[in-house]
Amino acid sequence: MNRTITPIAPTPGIIASLTVRPWLDYTEYGAHFAPMLITHPPARRDDDTPAAIEARMRGIASALGAVPSNRRMADAGTRVAVHRGVVLLRLDGTPHALTVRAPRWGRIITGLGAVLLAVGLDPLSSGACGAEVDEYLERAGETGRIRFAGARVATHPRQWGAELPADAATP
After folding, report:
1. What pLDDT digit, counting tens, does each position of 84-142 carry?
2. Per-residue pLDDT tens digits for 33-54
3. Is residue 157 part of a domain?
4. Helical residues (DSSP H) of the chain, grouped into ranges
5. Which of 23, 43, 65, 167 supports an S-S bond with 48, CB 3.0-4.6 Å?
6. Measured between alpha carbons, how far is 53 from 42 in angstroms, rounded to an integer?
7. Is residue 86 included in any domain, yes or no?
8. What pLDDT is attached to residue 135?
9. Residue 144's CB: how many other CB atoms inside 10 A?
10. Range list of H helices, 3-70
């Protein structure tokens, strides 16, 4: 059965419900890179159907400019900022940012200057251990259920400046 899922624009409720897993990893050549996996928790309410969760996550992926793994990875521009130990992620189409308290990771990505954003289309428990996350990533990659984008890092949200969409301007 082939179905079309219409992405849902990120709302404050959707953004607040997301689970973010930042970590530091290495390429096969020993270079550092900093992935940030963004997932939806498993269903908690009757309206958290698989289709609804997928639509929300497609909306998040779209708001980040993330693309399927079989396409050239998108450059999402400067959309990550670090301020007082909090990592902020700017989403297109909303004035709200996804925030993560990760002071050490924030210092590292400020030095690296870039983050690999990974948006999973399927739910994953916020309590998932490392092996479960690895399994999730492998399955999502094999089945096309994950989206990726590369994002640059600013040292302060004010540096997002002119890159902010018009509807995200704050008075």
Report:
1. 999 999 999 999 999 999 999 999 999 999 999 999 999 999 999 999 999 999 999 99
2. 999 999 999 998 888 999 999 9
3. no
4. 12-17, 50-64, 103-112, 130-143
5. 43
6. 9
7. no
8. 97
9. 11
10. 12-17, 50-64
- List the domain range (segments joined by +) for residue 129: 12-78+114-149
Is 56 contained in some domain? yes
pLDDT at 94: 92
- The answer to whether residue 126 is domain-embedded is yes
Give residues with Cβ within 8 angstroms of 8, minimum separation 6.
Answer: 14, 52, 55, 56, 58, 59
End-to-end CA distance of the chain: 47
> Is 19:126 a contact under the CB 8 Å cutoff?
yes
Prediction pTM value: 0.89
Q: What percent of the chain lies above the pLDDT cut of 90?
A: 77
Strand ranges in the chain using DSSP code E only, listed in sequence order: 19-22, 25-26, 32-33, 35-39, 67-68, 74-83, 86-90, 97-101, 114-120, 146-154
Find where tokens 């996996």 sit. 37
The pair phi, psi for residue 96, each rounded to 5°, is: -90, 140
- Asked whether the beta carbons of 66 and 119 are under 8 A apart, the reply is yes
> Which residue stretches of 40-129 are H helix?
50-64, 103-112
Domains contained in the chain, number: 1
